[in-house]
């Protein structure tokens, strides 16, 4: 089945890659597993998982991270992770608008294609800043590496999601330039 009005498989691929990246970023934000392991400093021999806003101890329910523990780096990591997700959502929304306009045979503005790429690049950069702040600021400052803490899957999902958003933006722009 052919795609309507100048849409190509590359348009679809770029949009899908952006969508997967945004989904991974949302999961990374929602899960408290940016770091895990034993944190002897406060919890002795108990296993601890920590995210951007919550921590979980194996013997307790998940709780908000106390304000006195949240450093500027920790808050910065959370803020840039949210900005990355929002930029990715904006890019995904614009690609969907592009699809709707193409299907309705309405003219599309070429500046929208560039804005999609710009939003994807911003999302990717925000994720890089977020993970750098967490890894370099929070992880090292709190001595997680010396305490036996490991990097959790949420941090990895955030990195992969950010780069997928950037890759999807490039694919979408290539499709728009090549097939317009």
From TrEMBL:
<feature type="transmembrane region" description="Helical">
    <location>
        <begin position="151"/>
        <end position="177"/>
    </location>
</feature>
<protein>
    <submittedName>
        <fullName>Uncharacterized protein LOC106078300</fullName>
    </submittedName>
</protein>
<keyword id="KW-0472">Membrane</keyword>
<dbReference type="Pfam" id="PF00822">
    <property type="entry name" value="PMP22_Claudin"/>
</dbReference>
<dbReference type="GO" id="GO:0005886">
    <property type="term" value="C:plasma membrane"/>
</dbReference>
<keyword id="KW-0812">Transmembrane</keyword>
<dbReference type="InterPro" id="IPR004031">
    <property type="entry name" value="PMP22/EMP/MP20/Claudin"/>
</dbReference>
<feature type="transmembrane region" description="Helical">
    <location>
        <begin position="77"/>
        <end position="101"/>
    </location>
</feature>
<dbReference type="InterPro" id="IPR050579">
    <property type="entry name" value="PMP-22/EMP/MP20-like"/>
</dbReference>
<feature type="transmembrane region" description="Helical">
    <location>
        <begin position="113"/>
        <end position="139"/>
    </location>
</feature>
<feature type="transmembrane region" description="Helical">
    <location>
        <begin position="7"/>
        <end position="30"/>
    </location>
</feature>
<keyword id="KW-1133">Transmembrane helix</keyword>
